[in-house]
Amino acid sequence: MPNFNAQLAIAKARQRGAMTILTIFIMLMAVGAFGVLGLGQIVWEREEVQRIADLAAKAAASDIDNASNGFQAARDYAQRNGLDLDTDSIEINCNVQGTDTLLPAQSCQQSALVRVTREVPAAFLGSEPVVAVAEATVLPFISGIVGTNLLALNLNNSGLSPLLSAVGTELRLNLLGFEGLLGSNAQVDLLELGVELGVFGAGEQLDMARLLNTEVSAAQLLNAALDIVGPDAPIVTIPGNGPIDTVDFLLSDILATDTNGNSQFAGASVRLGNLAFASSFAAATGIGGNGIRLNLGNTLNVSVLSPPQLFVATKRNSDGAVIATARTEQVAVSTRISGLLELNVEVGGGSVEIKDIDCRLPQSDSAVLVDLESTPLSAALRLPSLPLLGRPTVNANVGSGSANDVSMAGFPDPVVTTSYSFEASQGVGNLLTNLNSEIGLLGGVLNVLATNPALRNALGLLGGSLDEILGALGLEANEVVVQVDNMDCFNTAVLTR
């Protein structure tokens, strides 16, 4: 019996030991499970907090001009995207890009640093602070084109003007396809364009100076752009012959930007329709002979002197610095009035200086600051029927006009196309006054006019001929049109953490 009792006691002791080990194992498993759950919670919360910090950093960089207001727009944006003020704290400061050196708000330039801290209850481990840091640098850019009222007419979808139709015909483009091409709002990424043209290899970054120094024909440029746009491209056939293929020009002739300093153009693009508009005029500069002939009452011979320029500009640290200068197209027109007077007019021309990009949230509060200037409108009147006067040519011009610090405001998010027109002066009336004044100085012209009704009638038709010329070209005297078709503040605030 004693042996039995001893054995029973030993068995019970072993059973208790086994239960203790099992209990400890279960408790360890539970602790491990809780620990895994706690760590999983921390990992999930860390990812969530980092997401909020990233969004807030991009918003703060986009709103860098309002740093002195405490980045309130960025704080509001963070709250809309998950920031909980009961458990989270957020700090937003200006800093030097690539470092953790904080700057006072009034010293903000292009970079903002965000710290978001969240107290996370990690199961029974207590509260664990999760911290996320993100830095963003704003690299806003705008793109667009400068032109005369001819550009504005094209933007208004009023059909092609006689001059644009003639350009398309001279370039041997199907007019319906050409009109669709000019009206295309598709964006052409400049890095992709450089790759298509063979300027850059795969994996290279956009080097604007190299791109601008590339010589192309309009056909090469348009085919590359159409390949980039892909299925969204308008249906247009490039003929393979004529000026569109044989006239080469530098891309800097139709695309303007400032490549000095530390300008960065990551993600920059231009509108396909604008690229077609500028490259078509660049090709038209090579049309020989008397240029483009327009038969509208009096026959007009039009020569394209220079194409319009697209522009791409990125924000500088210093407000008011010129970050891009682009010009409008300029054309020369010659005609003979009643077979007696030869009138030559240079019309169009002007320039815009992009001085600053003001990025704010919401983006509808953003703006571009520009200076505008028109080129003098000039005319030369030859009187070959009066060879004895000794002064067969009369010259006149109308001075240029300008406007400074013009704010082109109100760009919704996402970007839309807008345009701003500036008319420097009413040039036609002044031009006619100047011509008549100059004609009056001709020695015996009054006697000749008295005995030559045809010449007198031809001079009387002069004003109507000028109006006819400008109307045929789709121009108004001394007018500069600026179209900004892409302004990207928020989406180019790049995370640099």
Automatic annotation (TrEMBL):
Name of the protein in its database record: Pilus assembly protein TadG-related protein
InterPro entries, per the entry: Tad_N
Domain Putative Flp pilus-assembly TadG-like N-terminal residue range list: 17-63
Residues passing through the membrane, by range: 21-44
Organism: Limnobacter parvus
Keywords (A to Z) from UniProt: Membrane, Transmembrane, Transmembrane helix
